[in-house]
Amino acid sequence: MAFKTAASLALKKGVPEARPVILEPIYNVDVVIPEEFMGDVMGDFSGRRGRILGMEHHRNRSGIIVVKAQVPLAEMTGYVTVLRSMTQGKGTFNMDFFAYEEAPQKVTETIIAKKAAEKSE
Question: Whose CA is closest to 93, among 34, 51, 30?
Answer without folding.
Answer: 30
